[in-house]
TrEMBL record, chain A:
<dbReference type="Pfam" id="PF00005">
    <property type="entry name" value="ABC_tran"/>
</dbReference>
<keyword id="KW-0067">ATP-binding</keyword>
<dbReference type="InterPro" id="IPR003593">
    <property type="entry name" value="AAA+_ATPase"/>
</dbReference>
<feature type="domain" description="ABC transporter">
    <location>
        <begin position="4"/>
        <end position="238"/>
    </location>
</feature>
<dbReference type="InterPro" id="IPR017871">
    <property type="entry name" value="ABC_transporter-like_CS"/>
</dbReference>
<keyword id="KW-0547">Nucleotide-binding</keyword>
<protein>
    <submittedName>
        <fullName>ABC transporter ATP-binding protein</fullName>
    </submittedName>
</protein>
<dbReference type="InterPro" id="IPR050166">
    <property type="entry name" value="ABC_transporter_ATP-bind"/>
</dbReference>
<dbReference type="InterPro" id="IPR003439">
    <property type="entry name" value="ABC_transporter-like_ATP-bd"/>
</dbReference>
Automatic annotation (TrEMBL), chain B:
<keyword id="KW-1003">Cell membrane</keyword>
<comment type="similarity">
    <text>Belongs to the binding-protein-dependent transport system permease family.</text>
</comment>
<dbReference type="Pfam" id="PF00528">
    <property type="entry name" value="BPD_transp_1"/>
</dbReference>
<dbReference type="InterPro" id="IPR035906">
    <property type="entry name" value="MetI-like_sf"/>
</dbReference>
<feature type="transmembrane region" description="Helical">
    <location>
        <begin position="193"/>
        <end position="214"/>
    </location>
</feature>
<feature type="transmembrane region" description="Helical">
    <location>
        <begin position="67"/>
        <end position="98"/>
    </location>
</feature>
<keyword id="KW-1133">Transmembrane helix</keyword>
<feature type="domain" description="ABC transmembrane type-1">
    <location>
        <begin position="75"/>
        <end position="265"/>
    </location>
</feature>
<keyword id="KW-0813">Transport</keyword>
Length: 259, 280
């Protein structure tokens, strides 16, 4: 079964008004189980809108979205996905541990159980020593790691990420990319990852989905699948070829298949 | 310790200003083009501070209780009225804010009236409320109603802002957890609103004191500090220090209420203490 199926989805904001905007037009997207898919495109191409549709934070104007075989709304109510945004969105009045516990709390887990689970997730992102800190005491990169731990806390089969590393510096960003890949490999999570960085998309993804603006639509789907994801991979021929292929697709020039 | 020092310092400055003006000011006040721009500095208008303090120790009327006991008792009476008004006002304000946050239409429909409510002169309203005294509620409670009428406003407006303060990401996050309106309120909106609530409560505390003092005067309720100010001011020509003892009491009452309200926030604002950022 596919993790996500988006079929013939159109999203129009403010329909029938002078400020009507067609954010997405006739989008089809399938994300396989355990697949890592990046959405890339210029700003205004609707990549964040597409992610929000999958998360059922907004509803499509036409078309259907299924997550793990269920309508997106049902999947959301079952907490079938974890989500992380560009702003970590941590609750400043909760400690790091209690922030990670939040989704577990809303699921009604017992106190001891959710504490154990949250601690496990913090260990996964390497922040177990900071469980008792408040978010304001942590740097931006650490806050983002807490947000990822929180998204993973319910061990969802699907992870949705909206430019989670967008506000971070290059060094932190590359370290977190490797950490994210390790976590996804370990947990077998399918991932939809919105970014506007070509190198980030290519390094992380099994497949890069390229979108263009006005109206937002998918223009290309480029399989990448680097054999390894380490420092050497960032220097490999395969990596640069894929970067070129994605760049050409973004510019709209015709290209031959990169793989 | 340092805080106490500042308080003492502030008091000393006030004393120096008062006595200093009294020493150099014109006893008949400074009049410019027929307008008195500086107050009279004679003993009748501005008694020496030591006279006021000394008056506190002497009996209210010959053979009566000392003034300080009378003033203190009046303050306690008004404190009770203020506390009742503050609690009622804060609760009403909270409920209004929650309702306005929940329903856009309530916000649009109600908020203008909430603001309008504070432009109605209190003295016009007081006789209306005073009429309830002795029939549907004891007369001190009518004063509490007036205090609550002033106190609810800052809470309603401040709390509404606080409830609306969470970022879109926070709200979307709660939605992604399938949390409904109530759980979003309890887990997100309410804790996020605390930094807005406490300044609002402090304003409400001050407003409740003003409401109680003015309410006592305009409803003619006996026993409180507001009434005492009016009674003592009638003797201002023969005993100018006496009215200032009552005013001192009213000021003290305001300070006590402000102090009590700021005590409320101590346990709830722990995490907002000053902290160092860990960079790793």
């Amino acid at each position: 079964m596919s993790a996500v199926v988006v079929s013939s989805v159109t999203k129009t904001f403010n329909p029938g008004r002078p400020d009507e905007v067609v954010a997405l037009s006739d989008v089809d997207l399938t994300v396989g189980d355990g697949e890592f898919v990046s959405l890339i495109g210029p700003s205004g191409c609707g990549k964040s809108t597409l992610l929000r549709l999958i998360a059922d934070l907004i509803a499509p104007t036409t078309g259907t979205v299924t997550v793990a075989g269920k309508p997106a709304g049902v999947a959301r109510k079952e907490q079938a996905y974890g989500i992380a945004f560009q702003q970590s969105g941590l609750f400043e009045w909760r400690t790091v541990l209690r922030n990670v516990e939040l989704p577990l709390e809303l699921r009604g887990l017992a106190k001891a159980e959710r504490k154990a689970k949250a601690e496990e997730m913090l260990a996964l992102v390497g922040l177990e020593e900071f469980a008792g800190h408040y978010p304001a005491q942590l740097s931006g990169g650490m806050q983002q790691r807490v947000a990822i731990a929180r998204a993973l806390a319910v061990q969802p089969p699907l992870l949705l990420m909206d430019e989670p590393f967008g506000a971070l510096d290059e060094m932190t960003r590359e370290r977190l990319q490797s950490e994210l890949l390790a976590i996804c490999a370990k947990t077998g999570t399918s991932t939809v990852f919105v970014t506007h960085s070509i190198s980030e998309a290519v390094f992380l993804s099994d497949r890069v989905v390229v979108m263009s603006a006005r109206p937002g639509r998918i223009t290309a789907s480029i399989p990448v699948g680097l054999p390894t994801r380490d420092e050497a991979a960032r220097q490999s021929e395969h990596y640069f070829e894929s970067v070129t292929a994605v760049r050409q697709a973004l510019r709209g020039t015709p290209l031959k298949s990169a793989s | 310790m340092r805080r106490l020092l500042y308080v003492v310092l502030g008091l000393a400055v006030a004393v120096v200003l008062w006595e200093g003006y009294k020493a150099v000011g014109n006893p008949d006040g400074t009049v410019l083009f027929g307008v008195r721009i500086l107050p009279r500095a004679d003993d009748l208008s501005m008694p020496h501070l030591w006279n006021v303090l000394e008056r506190l120790g002497r009996p209210e009327l010959t053979g009566g209780r000392p003034v300080w006991i009378v003033v203190l008792q009046a303050c306690l009476f008004t404190l009770g009225i203020t506390a009742a008004g503050f609690v009622i006002g804060a609760l009403v304000g909270l409920l209004l804010a929650v309702a306005m946050e929940r329903f856009r239409i309530v916000e649009r429909g109600l908020l203008p009236y909430v603001i309008l409510s504070q432009t109605v002169p209190l003295v016009a309203l007081a006789p209306l409320v005073a009429g309830w005294g002795g029939t549907i509620m004891p007369s001190w409670a009518t004063v509490s109603v007036i205090a609550a009428y002033l106190a609810f406003f800052p809470v309603a407006v401040g709390m509404l802002r606080g409830l609306q303060s969470p970022s879109a990401a926070g709200v979307e996050l709660m939605r992604s957890y399938a949390a409904g309106w109530w759980r979003t309120l309890v887990k997100l909106r309410f804790p996020a609103s605390l930094p807005y609530l406490f300044p609002a409560l402090r304003l409400a505390g001050a407003a409740a004191v003003v409401g109680a003092v003015v309410g006592e005067i305009s409803t003619g309720t006996r026993g409180g500090i507001g009434r005492l100010i009016i009674e003592y001011s009638r003797e201002a020509t023969s005993d100018p220090a006496k009215v200032y003892t009552a005013m001192l009491g009213a000021a003290l009452l305001g300070l006590v209420v402000a102090g009590l309200v700021s005590l409320l926030e101590l346990p709830l604002m722990r995490h907002r203490r000053h902290v160092e950022v860990v960079t790793l």
